[in-house]
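Deliverable D2.4 — example input (structure tokens):
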């Protein structure tokens, strides 16, 4: 029965990701957290497991996405190479910072970030400018921030990398393609870190690999990729602007509820 919940989560997260073009982590992390709490996972590790499992799921889904963008020649590999190393360093640092944070602190940080993302989605801010030369130190700094934030919160890097690349003058399709490619080192280094940080902990539930819960990983991955493609097709037939604002409000409500529960709960 529990496994069916994870399959359903894959359908839900994959479809929303395809329709709205968002990283699945924004949906996967809070939903996994809810499931883990219902299953009475240790309270002090539930959020860490939601984040670690989300990163392992993103590793699979973003690989499919990157391959599709590569086939369409929307991945500028020269940019990927410039950001690659700093993203990995940032992801490792972020995951080890996460290890030392209390679960409720992580939940509050995640919730605040989701509120900011939902505000941006609601405003539908888009920036495309003339192509500018970007220095290596700037690429490295932004790469570190992307990796750090993604590993700390268990979500992809698109909410920073896409606005940054369009600000530097990259076309939106190229920015999305590069963001998808950058998702692989983010998710890979983050997943490895969460395995290391939780490995050998006797208080974690059965079928855990460090802070990654394998049944959830398998269940979500089985359905999310297919339904992401289906969601992308559906998006062309729906009033996306209105739906995106509605979804932004939904995300904000979920995030505010998490903040309220952790501060007053």
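Example output (designed residues):
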């Amino acid at each position: 029965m529990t496994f069916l919940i994870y399959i359903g989560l894959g359908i839900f997260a994959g479809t929303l990701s395809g329709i709205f073009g968002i990283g699945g982590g924004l949906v996967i992390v809070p939903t996994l957290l809810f499931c883990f709490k219902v299953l009475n996972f240790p309270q002090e590790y539930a959020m860490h497991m939601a984040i670690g499992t989300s990163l392992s799921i993103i590793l699979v889904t973003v690989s499919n996405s990157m391959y599709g963008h590569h086939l369409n020649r929307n991945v500028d590999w020269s940019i990927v190479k410039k950001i690659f190393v700093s993203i990995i360093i940032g992801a490792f640092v972020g995951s080890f910072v996460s290890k030392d944070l209390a679960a409720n602190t992580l939940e509050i940080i995640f919730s605040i970030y989701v509120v900011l993302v939902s505000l941006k989605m609601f405003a539908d801010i888009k920036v495309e400018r003339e192509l500018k030369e970007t220095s290596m130190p700037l690429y490295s700094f932004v790469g570190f921030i992307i990796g750090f934030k993604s590993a700390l919160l268990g979500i992809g890097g698109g909410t920073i990398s896409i606005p940054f690349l369009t600000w530097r003058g990259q076309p939106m399709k190229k920015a999305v393609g590069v963001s998808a490619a950058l998702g692989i080192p983010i998710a890979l280094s983050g997943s490895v870190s969460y395995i290391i940080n939780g490995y050998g902990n006797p208080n974690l539930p059965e079928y855990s690999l460090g802070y990654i819960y394998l049944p959830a990983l398998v269940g979500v991955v089985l359905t999310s990729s297919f339904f992401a493609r289906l969601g992308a097709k559906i998006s062309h037939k729906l009033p996306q602007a209105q739906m995106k604002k509605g979804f932004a409000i939904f995300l904000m409500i979920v995030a505010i509820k998490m903040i309220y529960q952790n501060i007053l709960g």
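Residues 2-264 form one domain.
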